[in-house]
Amino acid sequence: MRVSEIAMVTPKTVMECLMYLSNRGQDARLLAGGTDAIVQMKEKVGRPKIWINIGKLDELRFIREVGNEIHIGSLSTHTELANSKLIRSRASVLAEAAERVGATQIRNMGTIGGNIATASPAGDTLPALYVLDAELELQSFAKKRRIKIADFFLGPRRTLLQNDEIITKIIIKPMQENEIGIFEKLGPRRAQAISIVNVAIKLSMGSKARQCLAGKIAFGSVAPTIVRASKCEAMLTLGLLTDQHIEDIGKVAWREVSPISDIRASAIYRKDMAGALLIRGLYRLMKRWEDQ
Amino acid sequence: MKMKQRDKQKTYQWVGKRVQRKDGPEKVTGDLKYMTDYRYENMVWGRVLRAKHPYAKIKQIDTSRAEAYPGVICVLTYEDIPGFNGFGIVVPDQPVLCHDYVRCMSDAVALVAAETEEIAEEALQLIDVDYEVLTPVTDPEEAMKENAPMLHPSGNVHTHVQVQNGDIEKAFAEADIIVENTYISPRQMHAFIETEGGWGILEEDGSLTIRCPGQYAFRDRMQIARVLAWNPHRIHVVSNPIGGGFGGKDEITVQIYLALLALHTGGRPVKIHYKREESVIAGIKRHPFKVKMKTAAKKDGTLIANQVIAYGDTGAYASLGGAVISLAVEHSCGPYYIPNVDLNGYCVYTNNGVSGAFRGFGVNQVCFAMEQNIDIIAEKLGIDPIEIRKKNVYHQGGISSVGHRVTASVGTWETLDVAEKSDLWQRRHHYKNNPSEPWKKRGIGIASSFHGIGMGIGLPDYGAATIELLPGGRFLVGVCSEDIGQGNGTVFAIVAAEALQCHLDDIDVIQGDTKLTLDSGTVSASRSTYVGGNTILAAAPNMIQLLIHTAAEIFDIDPEFVEHRDGKLWKTIPVQGKEVLSYAEIYDYLYQHRRETKVEGHFMVPTAEKMIGKNVGMPHKVYGYQTHLVLVEVDMLTGETEVLQVLSIPDCGKVINLLGLEGQAEGGAVMGIGYTLYEDTVIENGLYKTTNFTNYILPTFKETPHIQTIPVESDEKSGPFGAKGIGEVVMIPIIPAIVQAIYDATGARIRHLPATPERVYQAMKEQGMI
């Protein structure tokens, strides 16, 4: 398929889009920000017969509080997430993650729905969504369904999303007063880089100094999908989060991950870095908690 | 210093000031159209079929399917080359289109011209090349073994450069300390913003126009002519403007492909413009080096011996590899005097792409090794790193380590002295003791280096400039040497404005055009300020003579009674008529009388007294010197290194454009940071693992530290207004300075660049620091 021969349709409403998909879903690919789809098209790995340009579906561009949930429209860009007052105050770990994606231009174009649907093990918003207990709303012409983010991914670039479906919104649980979170990323350079390892941490803090009541830790880029670090999570509440205890938790992290070697880093370095980033994240979180 | 006295004697109107680049506004606003930005109504697209294997025998090439494909205009192979099927600046051993073997993935096998870029690309897939795959040679030391497959009839060692002085064995026996290490450096990519590309047009009169960014239009024209078997005068090469060069456009890029295709498109303009992915594979790179260095000193820090074996991987073809190795050997002992040396450089063929010219030209790799060895010696002897360098530098009139007397200006000691007196060095303990987070550590590193200006002895090195008087009394200065980003056009304008006593805005500069300028030599070897400036200073007196003689004619007096002062021509004897003439009036008179308004100036680059051994190009007469002082912070958890501060201290002779110098110093520092911490084009088994800027990691603005530039102006008598060159050395000593700072911070020595987070982390782990 020549690039110049690929057709493009630009639906004006979600329903119009879903109608296209129900008829031509096999031949079509969704185009949101295009930061991944266009690269794939150039690499000849993703050349559909039709692009469905959903970039104009403004009804999927929102961030709002609904009851005890935050609803994020799937076409919200990384920049919008990073700048949103609601996300910054009630889901700061996601704002931090969105801020570390690519470069300004990429963040202005790339969408959270796209980051999820691309299903890269290195996707930066994904670990944050894991620790925020995100759920996804998937919609087809016939029906809507809601699934947990951890169930959505089957492997690298493979998801449960059907040909006739789109992700319409992402639902997260807002962080409570006693909750703090952080996103740590290690790339080959400080900006505009794909993660070698990334990690999102969310802790519920108790009344005592450095007392952790519960916590969630999710690693990216160290397994076929994002992985929750259940052993490390269990250790969070075993004692106060002193520097020594933080280091002890970090030492366990390598057991939680199963990375590969690629051009960015070796598997052994990634294993070590899972622990290093977890330690660094916890150090920084404790400093924030104590400074606040 | 001498320069200060000279400054007192003479104040300049333009020289040494902070002058905004003449091409600045159009480049920063994006107004300037680069050659590859253009499109024409009737244009066709050219594409190049690359080798499918890093080393293989070509059994057969069948282009019939591609030729029959709708939209294809022509498909060319080696059979369509009218002249000599090869190119290469020194030894033309690289086939334009391969006919018997492919020796690397960069090799071109066929060319296609088609109605659209897509059709051209599809047609490439339809060219059937039958290969017999051979096992590639991928390591220089393996390639040097007797049983290795011979990639060229002359063998796999393209050149062996050797310099021996004194008695190395005796010196090692007498030494108080000997340090021996092996250093490995990466395959850096030029990564210019404008990838290789351009236009070929067969003109109605049968001549050929090649519009293609390059670094030496006249040599490009010669190389094209050799392949076409054409008179070079029938080929017009336009090589300016350029979206960056850094040495990567010194060699032929696509000029010859454009010329061949243009002969088969019926006069329609043909465009080639590499995608980044193709540029990664096709473009030359910096030579990866392995340097084994054994350095000896006395207790007091006096360096007494240095033994160097450097292997440079030149890839499948020579390009400038021999010269790169020669320059590496010449500079391998740093700007110091070491009496006993045994220096060996091998330029070796492999199946790893092609290496060639790149800013620094072999010096980066050996400086990394030499400066590290000095630091280790200083530490073991308990000597301050600045003191040991100051102790060992040679001064003007002294002897270099390759054994020649350096008669040109030498400012190394002064650059070290500036570093020593800087706030960063004086308060280094304060800076080091305050890391931004508790698990980070800071360190400081210093290093010095030097770099020859021009081609060196035994190689033709000349320049020429034209100055034309224009309507309104303005001037057009023509120097072919292209502006590859360094700002030499503004330097040429400053030199001309100073010499002709006019406003900078009254100087236009034209560069990179074989019809409109004279052959001014290459844009390489840190030479264009030095050579271009001198050619303008050779042409300017001729222009002033023209102005004086014309004024005398108008005044109707003898020329000796005409004075050139304040940008005007004055009558010094009392006769009737005008007292003073402007340049505009001189122009009008010449124009009315249909007289020539253009003059020329020529300059031969002075050479050292005698060649070192049989090494063509060695030594140089003039060198630029440089010291870098850096502060880094290393994350002990991850191995990430951040460069926080850079002090760049060049000795470039008299500064022509202070703003331009700062631009070069800052750009050089960032390129050096990239080389040291991030950049490598990874080739495994002859195949590129690096594909584009997703995995070729360049420093961005976030990796750019605060950079301060303090020039040391050692007056170079042979230079224009006392100037030398600076284009390359500004990126060199920062490399070992960063590595030394990492050591200072962490205690871990890095001997393999780039010092990625993983390498630093591994080194800290292996050397027991974490």
UniProtKB/TrEMBL annotation, chain A:
Pfam families referenced in this protein's UniProt entry, alphabetically: CO_deh_flav_C (PF03450), FAD_binding_5 (PF00941)
Domain FAD-binding PCMH-type residues, every copy: 1-177
The entry's keywords: FAD, Flavoprotein, Oxidoreductase
Any one GO MF annotation of this record: oxidoreductase activity
Signal sequence segment: none
UniProt cross-references to Gene3D superfamilies, sorted A to Z: 3.30.465.10, CO dehydrogenase flavoprotein, C-terminal domain, Uridine Diphospho-n-acetylenolpyruvylglucosamine Reductase, domain 2
Protein name per its UniProtKB record: Xanthine dehydrogenase family protein subunit M
Annotated source species: Thermoflavimicrobium daqui
